[in-house]
Amino acid sequence: MITLALSKGRIFEETLPLLKAAGIEVTEDPEKSRKLILPTNRDDVRVVLVRATDVPTYVQYGGADLGVAGKDVLLEHGGQGLYQPLDLRIAKCRMSVAVRADFDYGAAVKQGSRVRVATKYTTVARQHFADKGVHVDLIKLYGSMELAPLTGLADAIVDLVSTGSTLKANHLVEVEQIMEISSRLVVNQAALKLKREPIRRIIDVFESVVSSSNPNPR
Ligand SMILES: Nc1ncnc2c1ncn2[C@@H]1O[C@H](COP(=O)(O)OP(=O)(O)OP(=O)(O)O)[C@@H](O)[C@H]1O
Ligand SMILES: O=P(O)(O)OC[C@H]1O[C@H](OP(=O)(O)OP(=O)(O)O)[C@H](O)[C@@H]1O
C-alpha cells in the first residue's frame, strides 16, 4: 500500500492531474465526504487528508509514504527525514512583507527602529530580517495575518501573496518579496527504500508531467 498525504483545497485540486497521469484517480470528493482516508481506483494507493502544515510531519514519521507540501510549510518544518525529489510547480505564490499603506516601512528600517512583525512563518521571517540587518520583534500567528497591522498588533506581516487581492481588500501594501513559493513532492526516506519501485514510478510520471507542462524551471 502506498499512502499519499494531501491537504484539502488547492493542493488536492492541483495534485489530481498529476495523479491521473500516473493512473491514480481519487474516487471520493473530499469536499463532500467526511472521510479522512480516501480510496482510489487502485487497491494499492490511498490518500490521507491532513492539514497543510501537518503534511511534512506525516511523511517524516511514516504516517504517509509521500506527500505534497508548500515550500513555506517545508521551510518552517525544517525538512528532517524528508526526501524532496521534485518541485511540482503547483500552488504558486510568493512570501512577502506587507504593511499598512500609511506606514513608512523604509523610514522605520532606515532609522533602525524595531519593527513588530506578525507571521505564521517565523523561521523564514527571522532569517529574512537577520540577513537584512533589520531589528524585529516577531509575533507568531496561525492565520488572518492581515488583521495584525489593522488592529495595531504589528507594524508589518510576512504572508503569502498571490493575486494581491487579500492585501488590497485590507488596505495593505507589499513592501518586500522574500521568495517565490510552490509545492514539492516529499517522500519518507525509509519508504523510498522499502517501496522503491512504485514510489519511483510515481516520481517519474510526476516529473515528466511537470517538465512538459512548464519547460522553464523556476
Ligand atoms: N493564495 C495562494 N495562492 C497560491 N498558493 C497558495 C496561496 N495560499 C497558500 N498557497 C500555497 O498552498 C499551500 C496550502 O495552502 P492552504 O490554504 O490549503 O493551507 P493553509 O490554510 O495555509 O494551511 P493550514 O490549513 O495548515 O493552516 C500553502 O502552504 C502555500 O504553499
Ligand atoms: O494574494 P491573494 O490571491 O489574495 O492570496 C493571498 C491569500 O491566500 C492565502 O490565504 P488562503 O489560503 O486563506 O487564501 P484563499 O482565500 O486563496 O484560500 C494567504 O494567507 C493570503 O491570505
Automatic annotation (TrEMBL):
Cytoplasm found in the keyword field: yes
Family: Belongs to the ATP phosphoribosyltransferase family. Short subfamily.
Matches recorded under Gene3D superfamilies: Periplasmic binding protein-like II
GO MF term list: ATP binding; ATP phosphoribosyltransferase activity
Pfam families: HisG
Domain ATP phosphoribosyltransferase catalytic: 51-206
SUPFAM superfamilies: Periplasmic binding protein-like II (SSF53850)
Coiled coil: none
Record's function text: Catalyzes the condensation of ATP and 5-phosphoribose 1-diphosphate to form N'-(5'-phosphoribosyl)-ATP (PR-ATP). Has a crucial role in the pathway because the rate of histidine biosynthesis seems to be controlled primarily by regulation of HisG enzymatic activity.
Single biological process term from Gene Ontology: L-histidine biosynthetic process
Protein name: ATP phosphoribosyltransferase
Record flagged with keyword Cytoplasm: yes
Domain description: Lacks the C-terminal regulatory region which is replaced by HisZ.
PANTHER family to which the protein is assigned, alphabetical: ATP PHOSPHORIBOSYLTRANSFERASE (PTHR21403:SF8), ATP PHOSPHORIBOSYLTRANSFERASE ATP-PRTASE (PTHR21403)
Record key words, sorted: Amino-acid biosynthesis, ATP-binding, Cytoplasm, Glycosyltransferase, Histidine biosynthesis, Nucleotide-binding, Transferase
HAMAP family membership: HisG_Short
Pathway named in the protein's UniProt entry: Amino-acid biosynthesis; L-histidine biosynthesis; L-histidine from 5-phospho-alpha-D-ribose 1-diphosphate: step 1/9
CDD domains: PBP2_HisGs (cd13595)
Catalytic activities: 1-(5-phospho-beta-D-ribosyl)-ATP + diphosphate = 5-phospho-alpha-D-ribose 1-diphosphate + ATP
Cited NCBIfam families: hisG
InterPro entries per record: ATP_PRibTrfase_cat, ATP_PRibTrfase_CS, ATP_PRibTrfase_HisG, ATP_PRibTrfase_HisG_short
Enzyme Commission number(s): 2.4.2.17
Location within or outside the cell: Cytoplasm
Subunit-level organization: Heteromultimer composed of HisG and HisZ subunits.
